[in-house]
Amino acid sequence: MIQRGIATFGLDFGKCPPWLFERMVALGRQMTLAIVAEEGPEEYIRRLADPAWFQSLGTVLAFDWNASGLTTILTAALKEAVRGQERDLGVFICGGKGKTSLKTPDEIKVWSERINLAPENSKALVYNSRMAAKVDSAMIQDGFQIYHHSFFFTKSGAWTVVQQGMNTANQTARRYHWHSKNVKDLVCEPHSAIASQIKIKSVLDLTAKASGKNREISKELVTTQGFNTLMKDFIILSKYITPLSQTADISDISGQQRMKFLNLENLEFRAHPVINEDFSKSKYLQKILWRLAENKPESYEKLLATEGVGPKTIRALSLVAEVLYGARPSYQDPARYSFAHGGKDGTPYPVDRITYDQTIQTMKKYVQKARLPYLEKQHSLKILDAKIKSEKNHNQPF
Questions:
Q1: What is the Cα–Cα distance from 378 to 212, expressed in whole angstroms?
Q2: DSSP structure class, residue 208
Q3: Gyration radius (Cα) of the chain, Å
Q4: How far apart are CA 373 and CA 34, in angstroms?
Q5: 255 — phi, psi (to 5°)?
Q6: In sequence order, which ranges of the chain are alpha helices (DSSP H)?
Q7: What counts of helices (H) and strands (E) characterise the chain?
Q8: Spatial contact of 9 and 66, defined as CB atoms under 8 Å apart
Q9: Ramachandran class of 326: left when φ > 0, alpha when ψ lies in -120 to 50, beta otherwise
């Protein structure tokens, strides 16, 4: 059972040595062949959506390279490992780091044509890839900028997204996992996992169930009020939001507006950086809001999917929905556990020894089945045995 949560890793600015990457590709190819033969392509990509399993696979392939580079190098190695064998394996890997991530839709379309995937299924895969990136960059505003996006899929339509964001201020990276079977609603708690070494004090999390009313009001702002009324709301906010955030002086506001502004008594909101923005002066934001008011999206998902809608649009609508209409979103960081298996100090919870041991034993089974040179196989098994010993002696996480 994949648990929901977020994994954070130290930000790594180094490069993977060519000799290491070559070995990762070779070992990754054999591990992938063994896993797919044993459990099938759908199970293979489902496991990649489990952060504990993903991290342990990276540890085996990367020989303990487990900073932020593990995510980008591991996915690149797996993509290279299956090159030329995608059809036989039934596993297709698209995207990657930086500019490569922008090629994901085109790569999905190319593979869809090669395997004669129905056009509607191809469009659905492209849409899910795009929406996963939008949700993690616009709906979860946690200070981590998405710079890596990988999309794994099978001919049956199963898919997994592994993407990573960086926070240069605190030198950390955060990884987001999605899997098609776990997604009941693209905009409401869709993740298989997000895992964190640190918690951010104030995060605008519009994917939380607690943010449901805010999402609903945000959609209604552009579908029922119209552009002109919405801009009046922003003018009101720009005039009063800064003094309210500092002194809550509402003596010159009367009637219904005064009642609306009483929502600012929430101290968590006052601490959020969103209060320092003046949305009424952004010409580009006005252009997007006009487009939304004209299109009248029938759901919040369609609002988010609209071209041009990004973090600022989502943030602006959320602010109006909260301050003027009382629809408070969640400001709690969705991080739920640290690394893969807890922490040695019991924070945020003690190491899960059962899951830890099961993950390692599963990896050992795949290594044994992989067609590897004897010395290479023994080296990988030695790494896993060292993990077991480390856990027993020091209660350390991966």
A1: 51
A2: S
A3: 23
A4: 14
A5: 60, -135
A6: 18-39, 41-48, 51-62, 69-81, 86-89, 104-114, 119-134, 212-220, 227-246, 255-261, 267-270, 283-295, 300-305, 311-323, 353-369, 374-394
A7: 16, 8
A8: yes
A9: left
Q: Is 346 exposed, middle or buried (0-12, 13-18, 19+ CB in 10 A)?
A: exposed
CA distance 235 to 237: 5
CA–CA separation, 75 and 239 (whole Å): 48
From the number of C-beta atoms within 10 Å of its C-beta (0-12, 13-18, 19+), residue 307 rates as exposed
77/96 Cα distance (integer angstroms): 10
Please state the φ and ψ torsions of residue 85, each to the nearest 5 degrees: -120, 10
**Residues 70, 52: Cα–Cα separation, whole Å:** 13
Cα separation, 245 vs 28, in Å, equals 53
How far CA 27 is from CA of 30, 47, 181, 376, 390, in Å, comes to: 5, 17, 28, 8, 23
Contact between 59 and 1 (Cβ < 8 Å): no
Mean pLDDT of 3-11: 44
Q: Is the peptide bond before 348 cis (omega within 30 degrees of 0)?
A: yes
92-97 and 193-194 strand pairing:
unpaired
Length of the chain: 398
Question: What are the two backbone dihedrals, phi and then psi, of residue 217, each rounded to the nearest 5 degrees?
Answer: -65, -40
Dihedrals phi, psi of 65, to nearest 5 degrees: -85, 95
- pLDDT digits over 27-59, tens only? 888 889 888 888 899 999 999 998 878 887 887
Report the alpha-carbon distance of residue 45 to residue 93 in Å, rounded: 10
Q: Tokens 């009001």 correspond to what residue?
A: 217
3-state helix, strand and coil shares in percent for the chain, rounded to the nearest 5: 60, 10, 30
What is the residue type of 32? T
The pLDDT tens digits of the residues spanning 110-168 come to 999 999 999 999 999 999 999 999 999 999 999 999 999 999 999 999 999 999 998 88
Beta-carbon count within 10 A of 233 CB: 22
* Number of Cα atoms under 13 Å in the Cβ half of residue 326: 6
Q: In 15-31, which positions are buried (b, 16+ CB within 10 angstroms) versus exposed (e)? A: ebeeebbebbbbbbbbb
